[in-house]
Amino acid sequence: MRAGTTAGGAASAISAALAAEQGAIYGYGVVGSHLTGTRAAAARAYWTAHQEAADKLTALLQARGAAVPPAAAAYRLPRAVRSPAQAASLAVTLEDQVLSAYLGLIAVADPPLRELGARQARAAALRAAAWRGSTVAFPGLPDTALAP
Amino acid sequence: MVAHSPRRAVLPARLREFRAGSCAAPAGTGPSGGIRPSGDAVSGAAVTASGGPATARLSRRILLAGAATLPLLAGGCRGTMALGTPPQPAPDVGILRAATATEQALVMRYQDALRLLHAAPATGSEPALSAILARLLAEHQQHLSQLRSRLIPGSPRAAGSGPLRVRRPARPATTGQAVTGLISAEQAASDQLLRQVTAPGVPASLAQLLASISASEATHVPVLRRAGAA
Fold this sequence. Notes:
The complex is a heterodimer.
Chain A: H1 2-33, H2 37-63, E1 75-76, H3 84-106, H4 111-132
Helix pairs in contact in A: 1-2, 1-3, 3-4
Chain B: H1 11-21, E1 36-37, H2 53-78, H3 80-83, H4 93-119, H5 126-150, H6 175-197, H7 204-229
Helix pairs in contact in B: 1-2, 4-5, 4-6, 5-7, 6-7
């Protein structure tokens, strides 16, 4: 059934974005603990932004009557974080992961979800660029999605 | 990738070929090496160990049959490079043309700013600003080439829509004016692309590309603000 499949696709894309947000919330706790001054303040502000985004996604799933995946108690970090530079690099990874998940949400042909996805992807790209200290041409898109 | 039995050793290479050429949607495919819930079973194996020899033979046959069609699927995603057949015109040519025109106007703005910088007598901050603008310009040229690759002039859908008209932005008189103009043009372009993402009839892959370019353009704004303030 086509309608059912589309609704299921939307719920699973929202769940994937929520999972990425939950990972970012956990990860920013680690990031913030290795930073001081304005960078620690940025990590706190971004943690709040991810928390709010996760709340929004949770509400969307609940409104659809879909199951809300719980956040994991702990997450495996891609590598150990011992320095401010490693903390910033983890923050870039977290934002890139969130960005990819929101691009996945854009694949759902539902205008409000596409708009949410595009806005959040842009916000994540801005945060990623701030941590990275440079910009990229196609934030969140794998090379395979681009024409050669 | 791990081959679990010598009989299947031929398969992974074919499967790799498929993956390299596939145009997988980014949905659920985060960057490898990202954060994962602890205890989450991460399996990269495409082929899992199975029971007796009969099962093994059967699954091998199915996999081989599938593998034969895979390069074709991959070719379909990559367009002219793989099979020599022209890619299908984008379903929403109007959106694509508007995005391409905006991107061309941005490229012109950067070129004007760089010309102005190169013509001006060198003082302290010009070389740094030049390098920053050249980097951002290179990203716009990549945007433009991706958008153009999806816009095929002369294709049935694009036919009749005429040549792409781009309004030339006013030439700035000073570098300060050029940077200010770039900041507002980048923000406007990012907002315009964001609106186009939700326009009706935009296929998923184009919506994702437009969103990614919108995000990229937004990230140029703080870079330009810092460069302009320096």
